[in-house]
Design brief:
The chain is mainly α and 426 residues long. It has one domain: Growth Hormone, Chain: A. Helix content is 78%, strand content 0%. Helix 6 packs antiparallel against helix 11, helix 11 packs parallel to helix 13 and helix 12 packs antiparallel against helix 13. The longest helix is centred in the N-terminal third of the chain and has 35 residues.
């Protein structure tokens, strides 16, 4: 049986949240599990951006060294995504998801115990393995479980939970750095990162493997067929793999350049206190949430490709205004909303798009590789911003690399085929 681009079920319609009511019980449980996992993953990842100023102050590390830690986590997250994609095809999406959650929660906790730069570098880098693995397993599981006409909205909603986790990290940072000494607050913030481990019990009890994957495994077993991870590097999948990696590089690089350094930019170049900068970040994060959700609906309305182009071009324009144009703090406050909106909305259609490009037999490794090779290359951006900022303003360095990333994404999106409405087959 071949995969088709026509849905077998009725078209989406109704009010904004009407699509959720059409989901079956299994779809809803999977949606909530993947949203929660990705949101808590975001909390653990974004915690680091809030402790950078404290590390610079208490340990005396440079911006370049701080960027190296961020880059190490992102690089290892790419490896984690590849491994998790392979495991998801071998042992199942649900089991891989559980492993990834336990991994990133445990190593985030260990970051709080670090006594020097080298220890924090190692713990944060190893945390990245689970960080990358969670998305690889969760996105493919959700894509295979949700019906075609709602796949974009479901995967976009999962991406939107990143803004929620980011918001939780910002709130925790604002509270802890206000009531505790700086040298202690950053450690407690990392300790809070163990909380996602609780989610494992929910996933274990309430989330089932996707029917598409189960049927595919049986089909392959009956035929004695063993898929190779190298299939994604051979025609006809090679073109999709390369363009998908290019798309991911632009999105991840641009986003990482912005989100890793914005808290430091607000405090060191705009001279805002932790409470003032938290207010600016609240606007940014709120904009991010609406960007994710808007992208989720656009992905099913105008298609994956159009959504990519809309957000990539918008992100380029806004990030230049936010970081390079000398505007007052009030203007920056209002610019934070569109910055978050466009920088985050670029991700909404990616989960659905990558899943629709690869056959079930290699969907895990295909989706895990293309998304995460972009993360690996994009991981260089925070370190490059850190080093470049020592020779020019931090805002200018952020603007240069973020714009380059989104321009790369726009080119890749223009060259990619449309997959809206594709039915996934075993």
């Amino acid at each position: 049986m071949t995969e088709t681009t026509k849905s077998a079920t009725k078209p989406a319609g109704g009010p904004i949240l009407g699509w959720y009511g059409e989901l079956e019980r299994k779809e809803k449980r999977t949606l909530w599990a993947c949203m929660s996992g990705w949101g808590l993953d975001a909390m653990d990842v974004q915690i680091y951006s809030f402790v950078i100023p404290a590390l610079i102050a208490t340990w005396g590390i440079s911006r370049g060294e701080a960027g190296q830690i961020a880059t190490a986590a992102l690089l290892l997250s790419a490896v984690g995504g590849w491994i998790a994609g392979w495991l998801a095809d071998r042992i199942g999406r649900v089991r891989t998801l559980q492993i990834a959650i336990a991994w990133f929660a445990g190593f985030t906790f260990l970051c709080g115990l670090a006594q020097n730069f080298e220890q924090l570098f190692a713990a944060r880098a190893l945390m990245g393995l689970g960080f990358g693995g969670e998305w690889a397993a969760g996105a493919v599981l959700l894509a295979e479980t949700i019906r075609p006409e709602h796949r974009g909205k479901a995967l976009g909603s999962m991406q939107a939970s990143w803004a929620v986790g980011w918001g939780i990290a910002a709130i925790l940072a604002g509270i802890l750095f206000s009531i505790l000494p700086e040298a202690l607050a950053w450690r407690v913030l990392f300790f809070a990162g163990v909380a996602p481990a609780i989610l494992i019990f929910f996933v274990r009890r309430f989330v089932d493997e996707s029917d598409v994957y189960t049927a595919s495994k049986k089909k392959l077993s009956d035929a004695g067929d063993k898929p190779s991870v190298l299939e994604i590097f051979r025609p006809p999948l090679l073109k999709i793999t390369l363009l998908g990696a290019m798309l991911g590089t632009g999105a991840q690089g641009g986003y990482s350049a912005v989100t890793t350094w914005i808290p430091t930019f607000l405090r060191t170049e705009r001279h805002l206190s932790i409470l003032d900068s938290t207010g600016y970040l609240a606007v940014l994060i709120t904009g991010s949430f609406f960007g994710y959700m808007t992208g989720a609906y656009l992905a099913d309305r105008i298609g994956r490709r159009g959504t990519f182009l809309f957000f990539a071009i918008g992100a380029m324009v806004v990030v230049l205004g936010y970081t390079m144009i000398p505007v007052g703090n009030t203007a920056m406050l209002f610019l934070g909303a569109p910055l978050g909106f466009f920088a985050s909305g670029v991700f909404s259609a990616q989960g659905a798009f990558y899943a629709e490009q690869f056959p079930t037999r290699v969907r895990g490794i295909g989706q895990g590789f293309t998304y995460n090779v972009g993360r690996a290359i994009g991981a260089l951006f925070p370190a490059l911003v850190g080093f470049l900022s020592e020779r020019m303003g931090l805002g200018l360095a952020i603007g240069i690399f973020a714009t380059a990333g989104y321009a790369t994404m726009a080119v890749a999106a223009f060259l990619l085929p449309e997959t809206k409405g594709k039915v996934l087959q075993p």
